[in-house]
Write a structure and sequence with these properties.
Blueprint (H helix, E strand, L loop, with lengths): L10 E5 L3 H11 L4 E5 L2 H11 L3 E5 L7 H10 L7 E6 L4 H10 L3 E4 L4 H26 L9 H18 L3 E8 L2 H8 L1 H18 L6 E6 L2 E7 L3 H18 L14 E8 L7 H17 L5 E3 L4
Parallel strand pairs: 1-2, 1-3, 3-4, 4-5, 9-10
Antiparallel strand pairs: 6-8, 6-9, 7-8
Helix pairs in contact: 2-3, 7-8, 8-9
Pfam families: GGDEF, Response_reg
GO molecular function, one term: diguanylate cyclase activity
EC number: 2.7.7.65
Length: about 300
């Protein structure tokens, strides 16, 4: 099967209260990505929150909420601020163009639309979005394991905590520590230690299936997994499954008092974010559960109990 061009893998959101305008733009861009549309500013913001498109084509003159206000709200939301926004409007004055850019737009398309110009500008901004995303991926990855790094995890935890707080849904966290890793390093050497870290990272990533989950190297031999929309019962199942997968891999550890192979300890916690707690509480609870798992003999998953 032929591979789709890179731009065809993008998501483009059209926000316009004119159905005819949506049809026209959809026709011009139909082969350039997945096309979504909304016929009001409020609906467009909600859809952008759900789908996080790479590019938004936004009409200025809409009822109830104009394009400038929609743009400002999108750019003020940490979940959506990376979306590129192009205004589409019949206004062509310098003042209107400046207003669009000041609101946070990256470009300005004037009506009546010229199809080749629209396609060229959209293609340019999709390329820029892909290049920016690639650079961010490099900046957010751990150099040894290829997992996300601590900085990226902290950012995602803050975002997901606020999202789950708005939605009133459970968010879970797992701290994972390789048991007796110093003894492994001392016995096998640092190169083998690095290979062990990479292998455990692969196993954790392979056992963590949902696209919304974030797997990161927290530091040293410690890893962390963010589990959106996961309650305590499902988090506990995930922790037990993870211990099992790493044990089954049977990477030899001759100096471990726990087993003849590499094992991990997992600390888990789950909460519905609210005014009475914070992301720091989630981290502290998972860390406490990890300590309990180690104290109980390692090679196990423990879920934090309320203090």
């Amino acid at each position: 099967m032929p591979t789709k061009p890179p731009e065809a893998q993008s998501t483009i959101l059209i926000i316009d209260d004119s159905v005819d305008a949506i049809r026209l733009l959809s026709g011009i861009l139909k082969d350039m990505g997945q096309i979504l549309f909304a016929t009001s500013g409020a609906a467009g913001i909600e859809l952008a929150q759900q789908r996080r498109p790479q590019l938004i084509l936004l009409d200025v003159e809409m009822q109830a909420m104009d394009g400038y206000e929609v743009c400002r709200r999108i750019k003020a939301d940490s979940d959506m601020r990376d979306c590129a926004i192009m205004f589409v409007t019949a206004q062509s004055t310098m003042d209107s163009e400046v207003a669009a850019l000041e609101a946070g737009a990256v470009d300005f398309l004037s009506k009546p639309l010229n199809a080749p110009v629209v396609r060229a500008r959209v293609r340019t901004h999709l390329k820029l979005q892909r290049a920016t995303a690639a650079l961010m991926q490099l900046a957010n990855k751990d150099g040894l394991t290829g997992l996300f790094n601590r900085r990226y995890f902290d950012e995602q935890l803050a975002r997901e905590f606020l999202r789950h707080k708005r939605q009133g849904l459970p968010l879970s966290l797992a701290f994972i520590d390789i048991d007796c890793f110093k003894a492994y390093n001392d016995h096998y050497g640092h190169q083998s230690g690095d290979a062990c870290l990479k292998r455990v990272a692969e196993l954790i990533e392979g056992a963590t299936q949902r696209p919304s989950e974030v797997v990161a190297r927290y530091g040293g031999e410690e890893f962390v997994v963010l589990l959106p929309y996961t309650d305590a019962a499902d988090a506990a199942k995930y922790g037990a499954w993870l211990c099992e997968q790493i044990a089954v891999d049977a990477l030899a550890h001759a100096r471990s008092p726990v087993a003849a192979h590499i094992t991990v300890s997992v600390g888990l916690t789950s909460m519905v974010p609210g005014e009475a707690n914070s992301a720091l509480n989630l981290v502290a609870d998972a860390d406490r559960a990890l300590y309990q798992a180690k104290s109980a003999g390692r090679n196990r998953a423990v879920t934090a109990t309320p203090l």
